[in-house]
Specification:
Strand content: under 5%
Number of strands: 0
Order of helices and strands: HHHHHHHHHHHHHHHHH
Shape: globular
Structural class: mainly alpha
Length: about 425
């Protein structure tokens, strides 16, 4: 009698993990790891290369990044339509190879105009590849949210390895060293893209081309609103990488605390993201997980803001607690948003819906730097309090929006759940 329940608990624990790695999932994770290593090395060196070697102004690089973020939002919608026309796997492979050529073109950049053109191309192609890969996950993975959690853990691990690999070229600080990193990134993209060729292709599009042109996802207000709310919560990335380091340097905490906090964030995501996504694989579970994550972000913000008024080591202790809380908020809101991106979508146009979700998620990249530099830093504790309150409102808003039935039939939910059960 006692062995039965124990075995059932074991099955529940291992089932989603096995499902996540089946049907090409392991190869997709391998592609993610390879590409993340190259991207991590490139991210560590790119800004230094263009500012120090090409001699662009930091403001020029920053503005170009913002413009590229906006351009990638538009590309996401177009990529979704292409995915529904030609298939997620095929688009992921071909756009990945095109991104390889674009990344290698960084070697031909010698001025601002060249940087703008190449960077816009790279960012747009990467977004298209991302949309096609996320659509592919929805087609080949049974436990999609668990798989995305594994993918995010692998992504963070790869980025960390890539950052470590960039230490030598950063130390040498030569054009040849930085170009070697660019070509290494291109090679990693090529390898990752070719790995996707062995993954089974998804199902053929289920609706005629004329219907796809109408933009089904953009005419789904609940899906668009849910995507915008989830996208606004992604401003957390800018708070972590921009506002937090500058805030810590200006506080009583040692400047080296920044490295500790960013390492802690990365390590927690690598270790805990899969577990954090366990209860977010249904729409009700996803909504509850997002709400819990938004509250965690809301609590962490005033904790970060108050360190400017604390003694040295108390400030370090509070910062560690704040980043732990912030990271769990990040993991919970991410896991819930993955589920909503699939379960609220119409299964007849998966690429279109993933493209629109990619577009709405991009709003975090646009709003985040503004929020970090004009609210968090200038207004101190009060700014962090306002941001925390906004996260709490976003969590509540997501729960309200998802519960509203904005179209007469919600077949996406029924079909999605039926597919997983079948």
């Amino acid at each position: 009698m006692s062995a039965g329940p124990s075995r059932q608990r074991a099955d529940r624990g291992t089932g989603p993990d096995r499902a996540a790695l089946a049907d090409g999932g392991g190869r997709l994770l391998g592609a993610t790891l390879v590409q993340a290593i190259g991207q991590g090395a490139s991210m560590a060196c790119t800004t230094v290369f263009f500012v120090g070697t090409i001699e662009l102004a930091p403001a020029e690089v920053g503005v170009t990044n913002s413009v590229a973020a906006v351009a990638s939002m538009a590309t996401a919608v177009f990529a979704g339509r292409v995915v529904d026309r030609w298939g997620a796997r095929n688009v992921a492979v071909w756009w990945g190879l095109a991104a390889t050529a674009a990344v290698a073109s960084y070697a031909l950049v010698f001025d601002l105009m060249g940087f703008v053109l190449v960077h816009l191309l790279v960012t747009s192609l990467r977004m298209g590849k991302r949309v096609s890969e996320y659509t592919l996950v929805g087609q080949v993975a049974t436990a999609r949210t668990v798989f995305r959690a594994y993918q995010r853990s692998v992504l963070n691990a790869g980025m960390a390895l890539g950052t470590l690999a960039a230490a030598l070229p950063l130390y040498l600080d030569t054009r040849a060293g930085y170009l070697a990193v660019m070509f290494f990134n291109a090679a990693a993209l090529t390898t990752g893209s070719l790995l996707l060729r062995s993954i089974p292709a998804g199902p053929a599009p289920q609706e005629p081309r004329s219907a796809r042109r109408l933009g089904r996802a953009l005419r789904d207000p609940r899906y668009v609103c849910a995507g915008l709310l989830c996208g606004l919560m992604e401003t957390r990335d800018s708070l972590l990488t921009m506002a937090l380091p500058l805030w810590v340097v200006g506080s009583t905490a040692p400047p080296s605390t920044v490295s500790l906090l960013l390492f802690l964030n990365t390590a927690l995501v690598i270790v805990c993201q899969v577990r954090a996504a366990r209860n977010a694989d249904t729409v009700p579970g996803a909504v509850a997980t997002i709400h819990r994550g938004a509250l965690a972000l809301a609590v962490s913000c005033p904790l970060i803001g108050v360190v400017g008024y604390l003694p040295r080591w108390w400030a370090v202790l509070v910062l560690v607690c704040a980043v732990v809380c912030f990271t769990f908020g990040e993991m919970w809101t991410s896991a819930g948003s993955w589920t909503l991106s699939y379960e609220l979508a119409d299964p007849r146009a998966p690429g279109d819906y993933q493209g629109v979700f990619g577009m709405t998620s991009g709003i975090g990249m646009v709003v985040g730097p503004v929020l970090a530099t004009t609210v968090a830093l200038p207004f101190g504790l009060w700014g962090w309090l306002v941001i925390g309150a906004c996260y709490a409102l976003l969590g509540t808003g997501t729960r309200s929006v998802v519960r509203i039935r904005t179209r007469p039939q919600d077949s996406a939910l029924t079909l999605g759940e039926t597919a997983k059960k079948g």
